[in-house]
Design brief:
Glutaredoxin, 42% helix, 4 strands, binds FE2/S2 (inorganic) cluster
């Protein structure tokens, strides 16, 4: 069980999020609470709809009993964390050489058309964030590929992309996209 916050925070962590953080804390020795920051931020970002706010990071730091700066540093360092409002599901498409030769740019164009946004933008409903074109993600044998919420999807076709996005949207509970 994590210790109580050491300082007041304007954001109250939900009981579910506190449980998630406790889970990560329990995986490391007591003197290594800092090791739980990545897992804690991941859970916080997920619960907050795909991005972190300063207040949320401060609350996570307080719950972990760490200086806020240590949590800010982790959030700033790892590309998996978003510190500005973006769509809940992050999509990155590889357009490096192997993927490009196998149709990666066609996949990107299909995503932009389907979602009605360009790279760097989020859908108006806040569901998808077409984050970026990626350099090689070391999955060339499965080219073309993309990441959705940091999970790899390979051997893509436009139809397969549609299936993946439909499944992601369905998991959100409404089935809309
Ligand atoms: S070029 Fe796309 S994964 Fe390597």
């Amino acid at each position: 069980m994590a210790e109580h916050p050491t300082s007041p925070s304007p954001v109250e962590l939900s009981s579910h999020l506190r449980e998630e953080i406790d889970h990560w804390v329990a995986r490391f020795p007591p003197e290594r609470r800092r090791s739980a920051v990545i897992g804690a931020l991941h859970a916080a970002q997920h619960e907050n709809g795909g991005f972190l706010t300063r207040e949320l990071m401060e609350a996570v730091a307080a719950y972990l009993g760490l200086p806020a700066i240590q949590v800010f540093e982790v959030a700033a360092f790892y590309s998996m964390f978003e510190t500005k409002p973006v769509g809940r599901h992050s999509i990155s498409v590889c357009t490096n050489i192997s993927c490009m030769l196998c149709g990666g740019e066609r996949i990107l164009a299909h995503l932009e058309k389907r979602l009605g946004i360009k790279v760097g933008e989020s859908t108006p409903d806040g569901r998808f964030y077409l984050k970026q074109e990626e350099e090689c993600l070391a999955a060339c044998t499965g080219a073309p590929m993309m990441m959705v919420d940091h999970r790899y999807y390979e051997n893509l076709t436009p139809a397969r992309v549609d299936e993946i996005l439909d499944a992601v949207a369905a998991n959100d509970g409404t089935g809309e996209h």
